[in-house]
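Progress against Task 2.4 (sequence-to-structure conversion) is shown through the following example record, which the project officer requested during the mid-term review.
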Amino acid sequence: MSSVPQQDQLEYFINEAVKARPVKTAVVQPVGKNGLSGAVAAAERGLIEPILIGPKAKIEATAAEFGLAISNYPIIDVEHSHAAAAAAVELIRQGQAETLMKADIATAELLAAVIHKTKGIRTERRLSHVFVLDVPNYHKPLFITDGAINVDPDLRAKKDIAQNAIDFCHALGIAQPKMAILAAVEKVKASMPSTIDAAALCKMADRHQIKGAILDGPLAFDNAISAEAAKIKHIDSPVSGDADILLAPDLESANMMAKQLMYLADADSAGIALGAKVPIILNSRSDGTLARLASCALASHMVLNGKG
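Structure tokens generated for the chain above:
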């Protein structure tokens, strides 16, 4: 893949995915306007081949109400959202779908089916979420993890979160992403567990327990994003000012950081869950069309580059 342009970064990923083939996508509970229209828009753009799973009458009623053409897409009729999630996961297990797309279902309900001990599609890796942001005043896509799944990850979980994000970047053509492991300060402090975790993760990378990226941390947000800020604080880092991935200490800080960039810095965003046997397109119900299309495109890159 050629280098990502500084502007319209999410559109770039969409356009690259359109050049390939649409991926077979199990769309879970598309009974509302946003969930169904997002799937239809992605299909019409050539990103996915949707399999709509949910109460057929509700899906068709929503399509009729909002003028969405769904006659070309198969519908698996199930009674409720819990059954829709289970049916979607079973399609993945049978090889009849390549990715999952959250529509009008709670994230926790969908992921419960994904990680089911006997009927799920979990792997040895912990699931994690990545926000992909096109920030107008940053020179490349910014990946923030984990802002949606792991509330207070320990070191073992952070190792998986880091590797998931690195593998994701590889699928997008970023051969050696730079990861900043964030804390409130840039020095290791015994009283701040996040700084100790950051140092341990960097040493794990040195020992090839985490592979395929350049890691540095602990770094405060300013030191990760701004080479000038790092210089002022006498931090010599190959990551400062050029980070691809920001690994946050916990879900709350990652989620707030991402949403601050969206709402205060006009960043466009997409979201995907990683670590299962297939990528999971995990949008918020408030996400617009670009976010949904970009999330589908990101899942497509994972599937078609052998990372899903």
